[in-house]
Design goal:
This protein is mainly α. It has one domain (2-10, 25-186). The protein contains nine helices and three strands. Helix 3 packs across helix 7. The longest helix has 19 residues, at 57-75. The radius of gyration is 16 Å and the shape is globular. The model has no long low-confidence stretch (mean pLDDT 94). Bound molecules: iron/sulfur cluster. The site of iron/sulfur cluster has 9 residues, from loops.
Length: 187
């Protein structure tokens, strides 16, 4: 977990000069609603799961529903907002948000016709950080947030993963259908 935080920190330090020009505002949330996939690693998924366990029962119930709805929408190619986005556009898991959410910003205010503009240098640094995250989680997987959270909710998969074992056959079917990537193969 510390190594994960270190990768986030290194990226922030490397890119802070570019991000000074960002047009992002607290009340926006465009990326959380319309920016497409929010890819995370299984290790990031574990951190998110831990944060979710600290939520009240009603919030956990609502989130489970929202995740199910979001997965269905995505499977039907319908854009869906992140289940962690609150009505006031705050992020429910801001302190432990995954790298995908940390790397994105834009040099102008975004709209569906005007998507985010990010400095090339930041994109390159993000690519390096993603490689580091996947190497750190070498027996794990990467994919959209709700898919990874779902995979980690399957007891057999969770057991294999937390035992640091590697059995991709366990999630082969789901993985193929949901563009899940095997970190080991991303080197
Ligand atoms: S995890 Fe938080 S920051 Fe990331 S997309 Fe969801 S609401 Fe937005």
């Amino acid at each position: 977990m510390q190594a994960l935080a270190d990768i986030y920190k290194q990226f922030e330090t490397k890119t802070s000069d570019y991000k000074k020009d960002a047009a992002c505002e607290k009340s926006c949330g465009f990326c959380c609603k319309e920016a497409g996939k929010i890819d995370i690693t299984t290790l990031e998924g574990m951190v998110i799961r831990k944060a979710m366990k600290g939520f009240s029962r009603p919030r956990q119930k609502t989130l489970t529903k929202l995740f199910q709805q979001e997965i269905k929408k995505r499977e039907n190619k319908v854009m869906a907002a992140c289940p962690f986005l609150m009505k006031n556009t705050a992020c429910m898991i801001y302190d432990v948000r995954p790298f995908s959410c940390r790397r994105i910003y834009s040099n102008h205010i975004c709209s569906s016709k005007n998507p985010a503009v990010v400095n090339r240098q930041v994109m390159e640094a993000a690519g390096q950080s993603i490689k580091q995250l996947q190497q750190l989680d070498i027996n794990g997987y990467s994919g959209h947030l709700s898919y990874i959270v779902y995979m980690l909710s399957i007891p057999a998969f969770l057991n294999t993963y937390t035992q640091n074992e590697f059995k991709p056959e366990e999630i082969m079917e789901f993985g193929k259908a949901h563009e899940i990537v095997i970190n080991k193969l991303m080197g």
